[in-house]
Amino acid sequence: MTFTQEPTRQKLTFRDFLEKLPDEEGDYELVDGKIVRKLPTRRHETIAEYIADELKAEIRRLSLNYWVSGRVVIRTITEDGTEQGRHPDITVVDKQLWDSQPMAYSALLEPPQMVIEVVSTNWEDDYVDKLYEYRRLGIPEYWIVDYMAIASRSYLGKPKEPTVFVCSLDDNGTYQMTPYRGSDRIVSPTFPELAVSVESILNS
Hints:
By secondary structure, this protein is α+β, with helices and mostly antiparallel strands. The chain has one domain (14-202): tt1808, chain A (Alpha-Beta Complex). It is built from 6 helices and 11 strands. The chain has helices spanning 14-19, 42-62, 95-99, 123-137, 153-156, 198-202; strands at residues 27-31, 34-38, 66-69, 73-77, 83-86, 90-94, 107-108, 114-118, 141-146, 163-169, 175-180. It has a 6-stranded mixed sheet with strand order 3-6-8-9-10-11, with helices on both faces. A 3-stranded mixed sheet has the order 5-4-7. It has a two-stranded antiparallel ribbon with strand order 1-2. It is globular, with a radius of gyration of 18 Å. It starts with 13 loop residues before the first helix and ends with a helix. Mean pLDDT is 89; it is low at 1-8.
């Protein structure tokens, strides 16, 4: 009996991904060489929009030189060297960097100042894979907004409750994760005067 091996499908590069992005509704990421569709729930979108609005208000209030967007795709690299195309729920970019190529796609090869992921059912992506990739790229600040308290108890403790983790890059290139819950004011290195609590996010 003879077996024929199916040809291995070549993984897409980040450039391929940008050129092949579908037009259908939803956000898309390049994961392990394949285009993956993300279709967030309304609650997910509401929370992301609330946080983005608060950051934009803080930027206006203090005349900070940042751009906030939910449409930015970021090129990251996995441990084995695979190109990924990540689409954070919120990205904060230095405005000088953003304005440097006004006709380019909303895609970044350089690390933005800050990214925020609102956790969905595939929570390991945000807590493990993206955390590693964002750290490797050198993104200074990364929020994990686990409003459903869906991660394991090793992250959330017992009993599990909604938590926002602020991951700050230290001098050794490692993320220091600080959890915030309930009425805690979320302390952001990028926006040190930001007056947002976990409760305000949950009640948005």
